[in-house]
């Protein structure tokens, strides 16, 4: 009798032992989480390889979770694809989109606030660690809707060789509008036929004209949109003065006439077609790798104020119509990829500003900053940086401003008329949100 009982127990134990791996496999299958991740790949440079590596590293460290990067075109194309997917019931779980898309995504009820995932003191400390300047385009009405990731400010780059030729100090960029004009006059070169071969200064006016315009309005002490995204201030006399300055550089032959392409501006700098260019810190690594000459990097020149730049770049967002498990996995990935060590390496690899002081305090970024001081210009400019222009119905309102800027730069309208017309149309578009 005892032997039969023993055999039954042995058989039951064996069955349990055999079933255990199967049970584990089933449990693992149930907890496996795929996280489609939309990323705007053509922001500059071979960044997709870096993103792939991060996704693979996270997957190895988090068994059962697979981050699936989907390279979805530029920022605008990525936004359209993400919202189209959301409306059809197949959104990405997370996406990197412009920080300025926040109001649009809220209005579409497409995203969840990160506050739902902030549960521990460690979570709260992580959220507080981001620079306040970057959170201005990430928070509204007491909630956090985006997490800063590939963020930037606008800076000036100058060719030190051309500065030396023009009798300028190669270690010092222009500090204010007057100096910028004076430097540009000395740096502009013409051939025997009077054709410009090197422009003194170049500010791109395609792609993100409104953003580059803020490099003139911010130091002129004017903010173009309120914090709630419901009203704009485009026809302020100080905004008109800023646009008149930009147009005046071109009229005086110191800056290319008409619309200057965003994408070709770094190339023009490499080819010495422009001595000073105004562009994102996100181009820093690109310029370092491709400029065949020594260059300087400095903050935006001041005017009424010492200086100041809009922040820019992309945030992480988490989408609705995805499972709680997917959303939690996305949150964990976002926490993981924004740790100080990874944020520091991302800054080194791409040129984007690190998003927290803790990242700049890491040994890797400290060493990099000592070896390559231009990497710290974006950080040092943050205390006087402002939120990037962003409103509800952001795509249409921004287009109104972009069209106005280009109308002035191409001579179709005066700066005053262009911005007054833009103010009237933007106010009409925003009336439903007021």
UniProtKB/TrEMBL annotation:
SUPFAM superfamilies on file: Periplasmic binding protein-like II (SSF53850)
Name this protein carries in UniProt: ABC transporter substrate-binding protein
UniProt keyword annotation of Manganese present: no
Major location (coarse): periplasm
Pfam families, alphabetized: SBP_bac_8
Origin organism lineage: Bacteria, Pseudomonadati, Pseudomonadota, Betaproteobacteria, Burkholderiales
KW Ligase (keyword) present: no
Domain of life: Bacteria
Family: Belongs to the bacterial solute-binding protein 1 family.
Keywords for the protein's UniProt record, in alphabetical order: Signal
Gene Ontology cellular component terms for the protein in this record: periplasmic space
Position of the signal peptide: 1-29
Entry's localization field: Periplasm
């Amino acid at each position: 009798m005892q032997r039969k009982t023993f055999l039954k127990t042995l058989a039951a134990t064996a069955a349990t032992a055999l079933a255990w791996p199967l049970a584990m496999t089933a449990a693992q299958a149930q907890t496996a989480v795929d996280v489609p991740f939309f990323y705007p790949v053509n922001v500059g440079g071979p960044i997709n390889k870096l993103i792939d590596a991060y996704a693979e590293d996270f997957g190895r460290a988090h068994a059962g979770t697979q981050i699936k990067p989907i390279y979805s075109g530029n920022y605008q194309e990525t936004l359209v694809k993400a919202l189209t997917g959301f409306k059809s019931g197949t959104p990405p779980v997370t996406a990197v989109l412009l920080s300025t898309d926040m109001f649009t995504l809220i209005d579409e009820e497409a995203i969840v606030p990160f506050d739902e995932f902030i549960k521990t003191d460690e979570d709260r400390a992580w959220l507080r660690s981001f620079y306040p300047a970057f959170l201005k385009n990430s928070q509204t009405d007491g909630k956090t809707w985006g997490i800063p990731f590939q963020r930037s400010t606008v800076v000036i780059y100058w060719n030190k060789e051309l500065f030396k030729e023009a009798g300028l100090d190669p270690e010092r960029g222009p500090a204010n509008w007057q100096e910028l004009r004076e430097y540009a006059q000395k740096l502009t070169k013409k051939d025997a036929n009077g054709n410009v071969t090197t422009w003194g200064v170049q500010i791109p006016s395609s792609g993100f004209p409104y953003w580059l315009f803020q490099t003139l309005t911010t130091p002129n002490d004017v903010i173009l949109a309120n914090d709630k995204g419901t009203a704009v201030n485009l026809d302020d006399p100080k905004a008109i003065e800023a646009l008149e300055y930009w147009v005046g550089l071109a009229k005086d032959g110191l800056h290319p006439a008409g619309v200057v392409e965003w994408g070709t501006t770094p190339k023009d700098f490499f080819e010495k077609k422009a001595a000073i260019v105004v562009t994102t810190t996100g181009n820093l690594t690109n310029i370092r790798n491709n400029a065949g000459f020594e260059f300087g990097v400095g903050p935006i020149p001041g005017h009424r104020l010492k200086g100041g730049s809009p922040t820019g770049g992309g945030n992480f967002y988490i989408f609705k119509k995805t499972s709680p498990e997917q959303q939690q996995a996305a949150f964990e990935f976002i926490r993981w990829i924004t740790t100080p060590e990874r944020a520091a390496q991302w800054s080194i690899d791409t040129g984007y500003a690190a998003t927290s002081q803790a990242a700049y305090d890491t040994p890797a970024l400290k060493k990099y900053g000592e070896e390559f001081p231009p990497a710290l210009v974006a950080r040092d400019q943050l205390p006087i940086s402002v939120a990037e222009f962003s409103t509800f119905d952001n795509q249409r309102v921004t287009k109104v401003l972009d069209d106005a800027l280009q109308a002035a730069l191409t001579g179709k309208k005066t700066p005053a008329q262009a911005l007054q017309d833009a103010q009237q149309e933007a106010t009409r578009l925003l009336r439903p949100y007021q």
